[in-house]
Every structure is written in C-alpha cells, then in structure tokens.
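Slide 14.
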Amino acid sequence: MENKLNLTNGSRIAVIGAGPAGSFFAMFCSQLAKHRGLELSITVFDWKDFSRRGPQGCNLCAGVISETLSKHLKACGIVMPEGTVQRKIKGYYLQTKAGGFLLDHPRGENKITTVFRGNGPKFSGGGGNVSFDAFLLDHVRRGVQVVFRPVREIILAPDPRKTVRIIHGIKGQESSFEADLVVCAFGLNKVMMKKIRELAFGYIPPRTLGAACLEIPLDKRFIQRRLGNNILICNWRTQSGIRIAGMIPKKNYVTVNVIGRGHVGAEDITRFLGLPVVRERLPYDWKRSENLCRCSPKIATTASKRPYADRLVIIGDASCSRYYKNGIESAYFTALQAARTVVNRGISARDFRSGYYRQVKKKIITDNLYGKMLFLIYNLVYESSFFSEVLLREVSREEGFVGKKRMREILWNMYTGNITYARIFARLVNPILQWQLIVTTVKIAYAKIAGRIGVR
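Slide 15: predicted structure.
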C-alpha cells in the first residue's frame, strides 16, 4: 500500500526550472495554498538569468503566445507590458506546392503575440528587459525565493516519508537543500532528464525532434511591408530532413524557425532562406552574417512515461505537451494540474497518478493521438502538388463565401491550437466538407485529364 503524503504548514517545495512551467506552478501553488490557509515555502532553482541576451538567457523557443494562453494570462491578472510584446499577429500565410494563401483571424482579432523568451537576441541593444520568461518570473516572485544556481543532483530517500535532498551550485561550491516536494520544470534538458531517469522510478523522457532558430535583424517598416502581422509557414518538404519551417515577425527582428526529422543544422536554415518564397521577404542585398543569434531547441513529439513519484512530479515539456503546438500553454496546464494535486490531494505517487496525470492524459496525451492523425493527413496533402492544388482551390472558394468557411476554420485552429485536435478532426470528417472536397478534386482531375487529351 502506498503512503499517504501531504503538505503541511512550513513544507518546503523545490521547483527546478524558472521558465513558464516553474513560474506557473509557483503562482498556482501559492494561490491555492493561501486559499486553504496553508503556509508553504517555495524555492525556484535555475541556472539561467533571463536578463541576459542570447541563448544564455533564453529558453530556446520561437516565442509565440497563443490566443488561448493570452486569455488565460488575462484571467490570472497577468498583462504583458508593451516592451515585452514584440508583435500582435493577425494571420498565417501558408505556402504550399500549389501556391500560398492568407489565413486571417475568423473574427479579425490579433490576440496572438510574439515575444522573446530571453532578453532579446545575442547582439541586440536596447533598454530594459524584454524577456517574457523574466516578466513571468517577476510576477510570481512575491513570496517565492529564486536561486540562480544549477541543480546537480536529486536524491530520493528509500523511505518516502523522508524528504528529498537536492544538491545545487557550481562544482566545488555545492549546497544541500531538503525539500518535502520537488517539482521538475526544466523543459527538455537532456542532463536533467537523464538524472531523473536514473532515479529508477519508471520515468522515460519524451521523444524529440531537432529544430533551429535564427534571429534576423531588419527594419520594422520593412518587416511590415513584407510580412505584416502574419506568420509565414512553409509546409512542403522541398529539402530532406525538414518537416516545417516559418518566419515569425517581431519588432525589429524576424525569427526563422526550422523543424526537422532529426538533427537540424545551419545548412538547413541556409537552404530554407534560399527558397524564392522566403528570399522575397528579405532585402534583395541581404547576406547571412555570423553575428546572428541562433540556437538549436528540441520539440517533444511524445509524452513521457510515469512523470511522478512519491514527493516528485514532472511538469511542462519534460512531461508532455501538445503535438507541435503551444508549448507554453501546455506548461500552464500541467503546472495548474500539478498545483491542484499537491494542495488538494497529496504528494504521493498515487495522488499524482489519480490527480495530475489523469488530467494531463485526458487533456493533452489522448488528444495528441488526433493531432498525429491530422498532421499525417496534412503532410500527405502538402507533399502532393495535386492535393495542394485541391486545398488551395477550396480555401480560395471559401474566401468569398458568405456561409461557414469550414476548411479555413480547420486550418486556422490547426496552426493556432485554439481548440482540441479531437474537435478539429471531427470538423474535418464533416460530410458537407468532404463532399465539397470530392467535388473540387473531381473538377481539378477532369481539367487536367481533359487538358492532356485535348478535350475542349
């Protein structure tokens, strides 16, 4: 029988990772504990200082805050300052083999936001801190201690009634910290995930894909003319190893993001920047410089196994995240469910399994099965010139249509993540939409066949 473990007044919580997952957990846990009259001591550990520019102060991300996360932040009383907001996004420009088209917000809104995760690119200048992660951490600092030191070791006692010991600090200057609960919010940090796996309670990290980001400084008026407030997405696989790539406008920068099947290097970004549809969105005399901020983040494609033990829970990307979508929003949800579990249920493995894990499995892990099917379908479409033309013809037909724009709404939600993958899949198999696609497919096929045999 598993032990019943609970937090009590004075319990100490160690949060490893000061990014969004760690900050959200600290905020939710503090609020829930206060509501229950419980006094807790929360300490957040992270080796990164988000006031630094470049990868040293950044959590390596393209930096897009979804519309739904923006609503959650507003509901929590979190309003980003003007300096943190880089650009408000109104649409996505999708490029296929058959051509490109613009997806506008269905209601004409611009609640999607681009940000920098650190204090701007490596070689940027400027005044105050523009980091989204720093802003979020500052929001929860009241009542929470932040220690900018790396965690070197986590020691689980054989007896779950005893506390967890954390060794932190640089080599030769380590310190020990006793915690009643450890919350792992370190993202896809290979070193930390390996340390957790070596604790041998059954944790298996998620599988990942490689990505590459490059920050290109450009005049903001030029960015407005060439990209506007739209994110460019290129879906077709013209180069081996690349799954999807895009250009994300910010104030004085454009973030180039390339996601691959495995490792993605500088040569992949160079080939992407050489594509005509991309080159036309850069100055005609632009040349790549070595003084550009670049990084190689990872993207989780599966959920982890058993992200919990007695007195320990794993949240954020190291636990699970939506398939190809909204990593920061997934951090928000996993942090919220973990906080609810530790305050309202307990901190044993059994509590985390029945509370935290049950909720994230329902909300994220199970829904990702539909997401994988959707991306498989769309990859097949985008890799085919013929089916890309069918898609382009259908969205073009809907552009001037006064009724329900089914395909456009499906694509919009695919790229923004505004609704669950299960709901998107249900809309895709709608009989009316499928009939429209069949009619469009037959018309295009007939036109091609007639053209080949000379039918007039």
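Speaker note: The chain has three domains: 12-62+131-206+302-370, 208-299, 376-453.
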